[in-house]
Amino acid sequence: MVVVDDVRRSFGTGQQAVHALRGVSFEVRRGELTALKGRSGSGKTTLLNLVGGLDTPTGGSVALDGTDLAGLDEDGRLALRRDRIGFVFQSFGLIPALTAAENVGVPMRLRKVPAKQREERARTLLALVGLSEHTEQRPGELSGGQQQRVAVARALANEPDLIIADEPTGQLDSDTGRQIMRLLRAVVRSEGVTALVATHDPALMELADRVVELRDGRIVEASPGEDDPHPQG
Hints:
Oligomer: single chain
CATH architecture: 3-Layer(aba) Sandwich
Order of helices and strands: EEEHEEHEHHHEHEEE
Number of strands: 10
CATH class: Alpha Beta
Structural class: alpha/beta
Strand content: 25-35%
Distance between the termini: 12 Å
Radius of gyration: 18 Å
Largest sheet: 6 strands, mixed
Helix content: 25-40%
């Protein structure tokens, strides 16, 4: 599903350049949840931005289901993010003035999905994440864990191939964070999507199919699933 090949990303030039990624290579298989592990500053967010088409590498390549992202123009990357990738952020990223159902419906509005179909899918997705009774509540009326569940439902709105989650449990207590990771694990299985989740919490790694560790912009460890014959992807 995702192939990252010798990816490098630098910011600035000359002696002032910051090398965020230094030749990163790995693969994420279709239908698996891969955890991207590393401390702050290790390059996790930079790598997620490249995989999500939000940034372009200085060198190397990123491909999604055979499509080299470098070959897409801005409109192509926009369509990729809208139609094939769902994003979940640490800060939830919900629109305060909208209800939970309306927040889930935002990506579908961008695709001009008819209102009735949009509302039905929003209800279905909120039920999937356990929020059937909270569809009309606004983010300020929900707990942090409930807001992140809305964000997960929103990420699924356009039936993406890939979910990218950047520290989705970072603002949650440990128990709620584990519930969100279990939810992502269940969603990957039930919806048949692939997920790449950045986290620095070792307690959450056990729920992933595979763990890739970044340190100073390089992969230092990649632990495969039991049936993965290629330990380094």
